[in-house]
Amino acid sequence: MTQRRSVILDLCVQAEFHTLLLLSLYLLFAGHNQPGGGFAGGLVASCAFGLRFVAGGGQALSRSISIPPTTFLGVGMLFAILTGCVSLLSGHEFLESAILSVDLMVIGKVKTSSVLFFDIGVYLVVLGMSLLVLEQLGEADGSDPDEVQP
Amino acid sequence: MFVLILSFALVAALLPGVASLLGRRVFYVAALVPTGAFIWGVWAYSQIATTGPLIEQAAWVPQLGLTLGLRFDGFAFLMLSLVAGIGVLVFVYAGSYFHTEPIIGRFAATLLLFAGSMLGLVLSDNLLALFMFWELTSITSYLLISIEDNKAAARTGALQALLMTGMGGLAMLGGFVLLGEAADTYSMAELLARPPSGSVVNVALLLVLIGAFTKSAQVPFHSWLPRAMNAPTPVSSYLHSATMVTAGVYLVARFTPAFAEYSLWRPLVITFGLTTMLLGAYRSLRQHDLKLLLAYGTISQLGLMMLLFGVGTKESIFAGCTLLLAHGIFKAALFMLVGIIDHQTHTRDLRVLGGLHTQWPVVAVTAGIVAASMAGIPPLFGFLAKEEALAALGETGFAWGALVLLGVVVGSSLTVAYSARFVWGAFGPRQVTMIRDQDYVGNEAVGEQAPKPSNMFLAPVFVLAALTVVFGVLPWLVDPMIARAYESLVGKSTDHHLALWHGFGQALALSAVAIGAGCALFWRRKRIEELQESMPRVPSAQRGYDRTVKGLLEVADAVTGFVQHGSLPIYLGVILLTMIVLPGVPLLRDSVMPDLWFADSPMQVVVGFIMVVCACAAAVARRRFAAVILVGAVGYGMAALFVMQGAPDLAITQLLIETLGVAVFVLAFRHLPADFVRPKLRGSQVARIAVAALAGLFIFGFTLFAIGARTEPSISGEYLDKAYSEGGGHNVVNVIVVDFRGFDTMGEIVMLAVAALGVAAIVRAKRAPTTAEAESSATEVEV
């Protein structure tokens, strides 16, 4: 199976890749008050990388991200568990939320919840899972070296 | 006390890092922790004389009323001084035993973890906490035996130890739960103060005894201990002689005063103890490997301890406490000596060793003293313990007392014989003529040119040897400690005292008989060996274990072959049918039809119609790719319905999931034929359609009736109210996901991660038939 790369798709993906990643971050941070959240954000980021993969194959994917997907999985779970443990250590129940307000001076006062860190964990796990599946299923026919040649 | 136990774990976590800096000196750092524990123990011991037992409580699972209780009394101090005291010496010893192997960090950490677990075991008052520490010692023992994981014998030996002690531990847990429920408390002190009664207690005690017997290597559960001798010697001298294997004895000692009068307890413990003592000593006489000789000797001594505590008279419990301490001291020293011999001469075979008595005269004398203590020769501490035991068994007043006494005298003479065999074999002249089998090549006596062990290597042995002499000559040094241990077991103080000289009596005569008979056995050792060779081989416990494991694996193979036959349609069929039948039957029996209405808006009708059409088309599509796109379209329709219902979050998630789902399907389909395979068998086709249709109907019905099944008011209102006030967010869905039901989400992301790793593993397994390819693909992934 030889695969030709479509120039149009390639360019479109390059144009919208970073926009999608930004959108995913927006969804992640806005999620507590508006539609979105870690799960949706992670899925949008996964779609961004999925597009990269569809356009350029496994090589394009591994060029665009150098961290192994399992690291995302591990760090994500660590984030989620540590959030729970922090509230446990400060004398609350596991994962009980606390409202944080941070004064960022130039940007202004930001009010958020401690579960944002939990949501970041969810985001990372979802992204890591998709990347791992893409990588594994995509490389499954690595016997055909021409496939990923540009 | 909690801090003390935790400090073991905390320091253990740091040790691998320290090991990379300090090399084998890491053991000296690790030795500081048991030193601290020992100092604390001495301080606490001085307290309990006036205040009574120290008790610490911590809420464990308050919802279940579970409290983690620790209790420090006289018997706990006896055990603590073994665990911490010998622990310090073992760590110092290990500092010379190892060179710069890469495993030492891991080894030191695991050994320290074991020490902490063992300390927790002897300090626990709560039965469930005791069980937890009990299992922790089994697990750390497993890790320590298999620490040299490139040796197959070490791995199988470790597994056998884990399986047998683990099985016993589970039985013991069952016993603990029965006892705890019968007595309505899980605190050991309360349980023993007011022992429950009834037939259920008999079962419970039987289960507890299985746990104690497996842990303390009683016949027929003893076979794991000789095989655990594949561990490095520090492990053997610490876990498998002085501390871990006495855990079962410890439990019996604690339980006997309360339960000795139960019909089962005394006969069972005495029978098993005596059999173990005799069989262990007899088998010990047959070993050529010094370490195995000591291992069977340990089994024999554990049997004697079990027996003494099981008899349960005041004198025998006192004797048991003495023997526990004496055995810990001399057996740890003997194992260390074997380790030194092994380390310097690279063999432990007593037929090959020779000439060490001229090479290392000081070591030889020390070994002679320690072995004499094991044999019960005056004026050593072992003699005191043996005297106490013989005196206690002489005055039980039970009908079977004489028989047990006779058995113990026979066991003692065998002990004298194998002690002499140990010293003669290790340090005496070489016994070339005794080699019969072919496993020895070469004809030089090993040991004549062996390098002298360093003083640091010998120091722990000298300390222990000195103790066994000093405690023997000056018994009033340990007498209060043993009296206190006795007092905390029985609940009454004693006016009995340890003494070297009790005057002429039955015990002294029996000691003399045992020593004389032992010497005679050793004198005629060639004749005895020939006799043992000519004896028919009895079915060994090891073969029993091997058969059981093999049988278990065969059954597992058969079951797996039946259940996991590898046909995906059948798997799916079974899953779907289970889903339909189990909830389906009660659903048909009693379900309430909800009020139905056609639609909320015309748009719903349009979207719904599109979805139905796409779903039907997907079912009859010939090409896989088309089917996937159609299923995706159904999902997009669902997202549209969510939007119409005012649930943007669900819609976003649904949309993204469908998109990614289609992409992943397409990736997977690259490896499948473009068209679906049409099954040729008509019958199977009909069955598939039937199952699919039933599943569809079931889901439809289930969703429908689920709406009508509500009996309690919905919690959505509460969620809406509290989302901002307590969760701090306006998006209720998100607040539910990350806050109200945060635990569920935690489980889900863990499941996602596991599923992803599973996919990766399956794909890799399919892709890489050879290791070389697997390695190359692994590196590709990292790039």
From TrEMBL, chain A:
Residue ranges crossing the lipid bilayer per the database entry: 7-29, 35-55, 67-95, 115-134
A Pfam match: MnhB
KW Transmembrane helix (keyword) present: yes
Main location: membrane
Ranges where the Na+/H+ antiporter MnhB subunit-related protein domain occurs: 8-131
GO cellular component: plasma membrane
Membrane topology: Multi-pass membrane protein
Keywords from the named record: Cell membrane, Membrane, Transmembrane, Transmembrane helix
Cell location: Cell membrane
Keyword Transmembrane helix tagged: yes
PANTHER family cross-referenced by the UniProt entry: NA(+)/H(+) ANTIPORTER SUBUNIT B (PTHR33932), NA(+)_H(+) ANTIPORTER SUBUNIT B (PTHR33932:SF4)
Name of the protein this chain belongs to: Unannotated protein
TrEMBL record, chain B:
Segments passing through the bilayer: 75-96, 103-121, 127-145, 157-179, 199-217, 238-256, 262-281, 293-311, 317-341, 362-385, 397-420, 457-478, 498-523, 570-589, 601-620, 625-644, 650-669, 689-709, 745-763
Pfam families (UniProt xref): MbhD (PF13244), MbhE (PF20501), Proton_antipo_M (PF00361), Proton_antipo_N (PF00662)
MrpA C-terminal/MbhD domain: residues covered: 610-673
Localization, UniProt: Cell membrane
A single GO BP: monoatomic ion transport
UniProt keyword terms in alphabetical order: Antiport, Cell membrane, Ion transport, Membrane, Transmembrane, Transmembrane helix, Transport
The keyword Lipid metabolism belongs to this UniProt entry's keyword annotation: no
GO cellular component assignments: plasma membrane
GO molecular function: antiporter activity
Claim: Oxidoreductase is one of the keywords in the record: no
Occurrences of domain NADH:quinone oxidoreductase/Mrp antiporter transmembrane (ranges): 124-406
Membrane topology: Multi-pass membrane protein
Ranges where the NADH-Ubiquinone oxidoreductase (complex I) chain 5 N-terminal domain occurs: 63-107
Ranges where the MrpA C-terminal/MbhE domain occurs: 687-770
Leader sequence segment: none
Protein name per Swiss-Prot or TrEMBL: Unannotated protein
